[in-house]
Amino acid sequence: MGFLRKEYQFLSEIGLGPRNPGCYLNGSWRGSGPLVASLNPANNEVIAEVMEASMDDYEEGMKACFDASKIWMQLPAPKRGDIVRQIGDALRARLQHLGRLVSLEMGKILPEGIGEVQEIIDMCDFAVGLSRQLNGSVIPSERPNHMMLEIWNPLGVVGVITAFNFPCAVLGWNACIALVCGNCVVWKGAPTTPLITIAMTELIAGVLEKNNLPGAIFTAFCGGAEIGQAIARDIRLPLVSFTGSSKVGLMVQQTVNERFGKCLLELSGNNAIIVMDDADIQLAVRSVLFAAVGTAGQRCTTCRRLLLHEGIYQEFLDQLLAVYQQVKIGDPLDNGTLLGPLHTPVSKENFIKGIEVIKSQGGKVLTGGYAIESKGNFVQPTIVEISSDAEVVKEELFGPVLYAMKFKTLKDAIEINNSVPQGLSSSIFTRRPEVIFKWIGPLGSDCGIVNVNIPTNGAEIGGAFGGEKATGGGREAGSDSWKQYMRRSTCTINYGSELPLAQGINFG
């Protein structure tokens, strides 16, 4: 077992062993479900084993979490913010170890793994400030001796279902805000990254215990679809945040809607970068490389479509192909690696099948297009020339595959950008103000993230993150995303002695 290797010894310092209980419920660790193995995507060897949640574990954990919510929501918001601050401090103390675990278990390169954990720390800082700004409002009443108030109260318990590609950052985007808003959190991490789920939960549990608060305020389950389906059906969860594919997200949404719950969906992306003929070519080339190859193409904000103005088409492709040849592929924990493995052997198989579909629809592979013979899930970063009308272009192949297309006018480019079912992120490279403002305006990009002269990925936490259409419409992290985790009440208070509509009536 990989856990016994010298390079894995850091795992014991973040609460992990060769075999781990995968449920944190009612303040204790257990797991009476199936025993599963966590694999290293770089070699598909076992890192450690985890006992997943059973449905009995789920029910016990949910009951305790629901009860704990009555305690947590009555804590003053600034006090809740202080708990989240302590979680951020605990993360800072374990930043390197947790980042290394993300790289080891998910497969992204070490700087990305550390950066993911740093993102949660940043979210903790953001949430601490927010805890003193959950402001309502006073609304002028049209009636004498009346006052109208708009106030915000916690929902109670929020369910968070996260995906493998950001196995802990997405939790941070949701949980940090949900907690300061007064909600308890139930987290189901991705089935293939259980060690990250356990290590993160261990850290949060320690903060709650140190403050003599019920551990059930934060409840976590390692498990598969059965646990996810239970979360979607559970009427004790007014809000379910789900990150994953559009297909599964639609099923979650339908299940939650049937019980009149609310959904926060972060689903597929099929993101385009447009390069105009006046663009800074070198800046755009570096940005496309970063956006298309980063995380082995497994970000929801990965650039999948490259739209090049016909005037700079070949010049740009030549430069991009040259930098693709310099990408170092290898173990994500090694210095200098730019492209790690895909997350699972199934991901590798889907890449191979996807390339065949691309070729069958007229795609011409310019570089890459094949898997690398090894124990791990490594593939070559790929660039394909293809028509924007090809059906495969409208789908999301979750890997480092970039479709290159040519356009004549800005209008054509915007139409191509908006022609896919997904609507997460988009970017244009240009120096012309009139192009920029057309792009970000009502007749421009239809995505939730609309960038200029930066790539499609690398969103900051201060803005609301999310997209339109088949991306689900959800928004996480900054701006006023916090309002999704609370319920709004309009309150009218009569501080006089008469009811205006009852004048002239004798009530005896």
UniProtKB/TrEMBL annotation:
**Which Pfam family, an example, fits this chain?**
Aldedh
Q: Which InterPro entries match?
A: Ald_DH/histidinol_DH (IPR016161), Ald_DH_C (IPR016163), Ald_DH_CS_GLU (IPR029510), Ald_DH_N (IPR016162), Aldehyde_DH_dom (IPR015590), ALDH7A1-like (IPR044638)
* Keyword NAD on entry: yes
- Name the catalysed reactions: an aldehyde + NAD(+) + H2O = a carboxylate + NADH + 2 H(+)
UniProt keywords (A-Z) are: NAD, Oxidoreductase
Q: Which family does it belong to?
A: Belongs to the aldehyde dehydrogenase family.
Q: How does it assemble?
A: Homotetramer.
This chain's protein is named aldehyde dehydrogenase (NAD(+))
Organism whose genome encodes this protein: Dendrobium catenatum
Q: What is the lineage of its organism?
A: Eukaryota, Viridiplantae, Streptophyta, Embryophyta, Tracheophyta
Q: Which gene encodes it?
A: ALDH7B4
